[in-house]
Amino acid sequence: MRLNILFRVGLIGTVAFVYLALFSIPGETRDSRVCGKDVELRLSSSESSQGSLLLVEVHSTSPLAELKAQWDGHTLLFWRENSQENVQRALLGVDLERPAGQYPLTVAAQLENRERVTCSAVVSVKAGRFAIERLRVRRQFVDLSPKNLERTARERQRLGELFARVTPERLWQGAFRVPVDGAQAAGNFGRRRVLNGRPGMPHNGEDFPAVAGAPVHAAQRGRVVLADELFFSGNTVVLDHGLGLYTFYGHLESIAVTVGEVVEVGTTLGRVGATGRATGAHLHWSVRANEARINPLGIVRLPAD
Ligand SMILES: [Zn+2]
């Protein structure tokens, strides 16, 4: 995977343009660029296409007084690693329907001596190669009654408002895990779906087929912000991990947590089921980062602290 980035490095009074072509490393693409004399901007990603997750890292020689990043109209929030006070990280999600193209990422930092440093990188997003999947589901889930149309519109708005809320502190700590033990991902993230012959929304998560009743675990520490029955996803739990990162667990047979509860990694959230629009027992797992629908396996691959 090749990612071309144009870095614009600007210190007050001096502006330099540097072209950078990221090279391919199996499993991970990583590069860094000096961004002013005391600050370095690094981007790491296993993919740079629709639905991918990028890790933004800012390294400085001394602690920064202030650090901000902007991507696609969103402010990305940084967290500081416990052991490394001069390293700050932020997540950058690329939505699965983001048109392929060049998108700027701007980073502004203030050093302890009040000097300001700005960097901007143009991240090139490539189209994901998503298969088309034809499914047959119960008619009521395709030909919605006026009552269900109104219900789904309300639920879509509720979820949209929820994912747009950014909790300023990071609630997770360490690596993210797959929520079902021993289950294999179906590899169906992003598939363009045709339901009963009609084009539907792309599949915004990964499905994990599993036996009904198998426990579904929290992928990481977070706060339960939704535990409810929704029309399409049936019994659903949503966790807020802070800094704009959310995980979503759908089609549950039963829910074992309540809204407001802070759960630890591995906590049982409920049981695998087939509630809502499901063709069989499985977990539908999806992730939002800065509102972008990203491949949930992207957070499992994140380096842990
Ligand atoms: Zn699904």
List the helices and strands and how they pair.
Blueprint: E1 3-11, E2 14-22, E3 29-34, E4 39-45, E5 53-60, E6 64-71, E7 74-76, E8 79-80, E9 87-93, E10 101-111, E11 116-125, E12 132-135, H1 146-164, E13 192-195, E14 198-199, E15 206-209, E16 215-217, E17 222-230, E18 234-242, E19 245-252, E20 254-255, E21 262-263, E22 268-271, E23 282-289, E24 292-294, H2 297-300
Parallel strand pairs: 12-13
Antiparallel strand pairs: 1-2, 1-11, 3-4, 4-5, 5-9, 6-7, 6-10, 8-9, 10-11, 13-14, 15-23, 16-22, 17-18, 17-21, 18-19, 19-23, 20-22, 23-24
Bound molecules: zinc ion (ZN).
Characterise this structure.
With 305 residues, the chain is mainly beta. It has 2 domains: 123 residues, Immunoglobulin-like, CATH 2.60.40; 169 residues, Glucose Permease (Domain IIA) (Distorted Sandwich). The protein contains 2 helices and 24 strands. Strands 15, 17, 18, 19, 21, 23 and 24 form a 7-stranded antiparallel β-sheet that branches. Strands 2-1-11-10-6-7 form a 6-stranded antiparallel β-sheet, with no helix packed on it. The longest helix has 19 residues. It is globular. The site of zinc ion has 4 residues, from loops.
